[in-house]
Amino acid sequence: MKKSYLIFICIILWYIGFYALSSLFKSIISNNTLIVFLSFFIPTFIVTIIYYSIKKIVTSRNDKVKEYSVKYKKIQEINEMYNFLDVKNKIKLEENEFSIKSFNDILAKQVVLYRIENNEDNIREWIENAMVNEDTYKKYKEVIESINDKTDISLINKIGFSETKFNNIEKQLIDSSIISDKVYNIAAHVIVNYVNKNYDIIYKKDRYVEYNELVSIYEEWKNSKKYKVTTEKERKLMNYSLREEVLKRDGYKCVVCGKTEQDGVRLEIDHIIPVSKGGQSTISNLQTLCSSCNAKKNTQDNDSFKKRFIKDKLIQFRRNRSKELDIPAYYIFTNNELDKILELMPKNVEELKKSGILPNIKIAKHGELIIKVINEK
What DSSP string runs through 277-302? Predict the structure, then answer.
């Protein structure tokens, strides 16, 4: 007997006992508090005894079958042989939309794809683990289904069970011990809210994206242009107030070259981590660049671009300095020395000296100017 069935039967018995005793005690006892106490206590006591007595009988019966069932033992051994990765069976993905049009237009697939692109809620890991588990589970089921071992009838008779009774109990135990497809069969519960500026929910819609569809969306992301959905979503979030906030924070000047609109340049807002690589339109991921620096940066990350910018300035400095002193450019620094300077990015001459990148004679003649080029905006 399943535990849930046993609990259900006990609850029914308790209710029957409670109402029967209540009716009985009302006719012989005038104290309402005592009636309620006795009507509650007596059935609870009796049902508890019944529950644990039946449970003990069922447990004893099951233990006998477990001891003699060849098939059950074999399945336990097989279960020990197979290891499955952790998965989250129900992944909740909630998205807020601030316009009724975007609320109506957005699809569950787009929400899932965006989360996969950015691996929010570890969804990529859950899907990848589930895919590995699915392959393992198929092999596991093949092995389980190939088991045809039967317990000898003489052993069944030994414990006093009929063959039919033994087989029925054995089937229940085996069904409950076989690993279920939950090890891979995950789903995403996608919830989309239409909210106002105070994040009060006005409308809501939801849909479950089952395992096979999740895998299909994951494969589409893996085999197509990365961050396409993220790029579209994040660019839509850029607005005048966010742009103005970034400009104000950066002093209305390019954070790389230091130029302002008074220098005749156009200032633009750039994503430090490009949206094509998962960057978001948040204040911490935005910066002010002039149109020239922004064009040069393109989709590079910030550090790579700044080093490239400084490298170009150092090469220009070397060219101008060699003409000024009428000496070969490598007398100032070689290309190899330049790469090491860019790797170190020294803040002062002392730091450059300690590094040993340049000979002291070069540092004495050009060190201050090199540091100035690195540090100037």
Answer: GT--SSGGGEEEEEHHHHHHHTT--H
